[in-house]
Amino acid sequence: MTALEVPWASGTPAPGSRRHRHAAGSLAVLLVVMLTASGAALVSAGAWPATPVTPATSPPVPDLVAPAVPADDVDSRLDPQPAADDGPDGGVVPPLGRSDADAEAPQQEPAVEPPVALSPPVALSPPVDPSPPVDPSPPVAPSPPVAPSPIEATEPATPPVVGEPIEGSSRIEPAPTPDPVDLVAVQHRLKELGYLLGPADGLQGQQTRESVMAFQQGNGLSVDGIVGPVTLAALDSPVAPALRGGPATRIEVDLTRQLAHVVREGTRVVTLHVSSGNGEAYRQGTAYARTPVGDFRIERRIHGERHAELGVLYDPLYFYRGFAIHGANSVPNHPASHGCVRVTRADARWLINEVADGTPVQIYGGVHVFSPSR
Hints:
By secondary structure, the protein is an alpha+beta fold. Among the domains are: about 185-235, PGBD-like superfamily/PGBD (Muramoyl-pentapeptide Carboxypeptidase, domain 1, Orthogonal Bundle), CATH 1.10.101.10; about 245-370, L,D-transpeptidase catalytic domain-like (Beta Barrel). About 20% of the residues lie in helices and about 15% in strands. It has helices spanning about 20-45, 95-100, 185-195, 205-220, 230-235, 345-355, and strands spanning about 250-255, 260-265, 265-275, 280, 285-290, 290, 295, 300, 305-310, 310-320, 325-330, 340-345, 360-365, 370. The chain is flat, with a radius of gyration of 50 Å. Residues about 1-10, about 40-125 and about 150-155 have low confidence and may be disordered.
């Protein structure tokens, strides 16, 4: 055996033999079958599958237009106002459509302004190169100090007269500040004269201001509630308020002077500042703010707050249907109500405790009034 001759292992056909050729053919057939199977697998895993794949569902987008508060949970819902109200004495307030009360006028909704059209954008000018820096001026040498001249002795200047211009000037010397008012003494005087209900505590509040206004109105002064020199002088020499006369115990309401006089057994107890109907239209022009005039009586009362169509009444004393003498937060120096007679809340509290049902009420004078037919 030569070096190039290689012995074949047992069971392995020699190259070129019939057995070797048969094995090679089987191997080729096996290779074809394997290639066919792999091709089918490649087709089944191709980019265009026979069954489409459903994409994953994206999360729902929240509804940004829906209200943040549920429809059945409205904030600050207004309680419906009853059409009538039974007082503790059995009296019935007429339906609100007739004229129940007064207090503050309802606030109107603010007007919504239409959107303003925006102006078209303005083209910007090209930037301008900044000017070259300017050299600062050379420093100026300080002037030599000047020797002061001798001052001649002069007579002391005469102080200017108060309220006259100063010589050589247009400025006027202010007048001296008046001495502060002794408010406690003023309150004691108002109580003594029958204009103030409440303590003389030295506090300047609504009660003192309204009593000053009542005194000013009864004495023919300017009604502003301020205690000035004229009012102080009138407090020293007051004028007795003029009464119309009538039953020994009564309430007189003088709409011309905006005053209410409480008379008990022929003696005037107190005179209160009031505010009556201003004559303006309300309820879309179907009603007018007028106060009834004539002879009435206190028919019933409500202790505390009465929430009516036009506002809140404090301790009202009804004298004709829904018209009452009642407390209010605002009692200006002019007619301002929807027809009722306003007094301060403190005065209303005193009246409801001191005035009995059936007390005669006389209302007269004024401009924005009407005479009811019973």
